Amino acid sequence: MGAKCCGSTCSSSKPPVDRTYRRVLWAALVVNAGMFLVEIVAGAAAGSVSLKADAMDFLGDAANYAVSLFVLGMALAVRARAALLKGISLGLIGLWVAGETAFNAVHGTVPEAGIMGVVGFLALAANLAVAAMLFAWRTGDANMRSVWICSRNDAIGNVAVMMAALGVFGTGTGWPDLIVAAVLAALAVTGAAQIVRGALQELRSARGAPVPAE
């Protein structure tokens, strides 16, 4: 977990800004914003809920990186509150994906497998590049861990979207797409829980309260 603080002096201290990490965050922000636009258009064109779900992940991550850039170098309590906000937002995205999945299940939508496969592969390449850039900071504070968790989940989700495309192509039904969308929703909710738990622990630490053992 993040640094343990005692009293207000430690919690109000500001860490030095890691310029390399700042540049990586900017690159990740640009990549994720661009892929959100690509996938939301492709998801609508293909009628794929899993592509739309992945697009929402990209949007959430772009906002994640923007917030991380804003709080970079601020006190631990501020960074923990930012991580808490991002965790709640990720959970809401997961719930939205779950609702969209249920809607498509009721209406029996069959997506276009070709578009799903091509865009899924492009998204995987983008997320692997971002995850590789962020790997060195995966064990930082709650804010840094939230960035890593989102990137990791997205790479897993992209592999799942490509598998869904194969499933749709092989079966001629939309069920593989819906199953993957449900998995993405679960990943978002569990990732949100991890982020929120870590952020709350750091907030307690910053206030000088005892942090319960995991």
User: What is the total tally of β strands?
Assistant: 0
Instruction: Specify Rg, calculated over alpha carbons.
Output: 18 Å
Order of helices and strands: HHHHHHH
Report the sheet-strand fraction: under 5%
**If you average the pLDDT, what whole number results?**
78
The helical percent reads: over 70%
Net shape: elongated
Q: Name the structural class.
A: mainly alpha
| Number of helical elements | 7
Tell me the number of structural domains.
1
For this structure, what is the CATH class? Mainly Alpha
- Uncertain stretches: 1-13
Can you tell me about this structure?
By secondary structure, this protein is mostly helical. It has a single domain (7-205), classed as Alpha-lytic protease prodomain-like (Up-down Bundle), CATH 1.20.1510. It has seven helices and no strands. The chain has helices at residues 7-11, 19-46, 49-71, 76-107, 113-134, 142-171, 175-206. Helix 2 (19-46) packs antiparallel against helix 5 and helix 4 packs parallel to helix 6. It starts with 6 loop residues before the first helix and ends in an 8-residue tail after the last helix. 45% of the residues are buried.
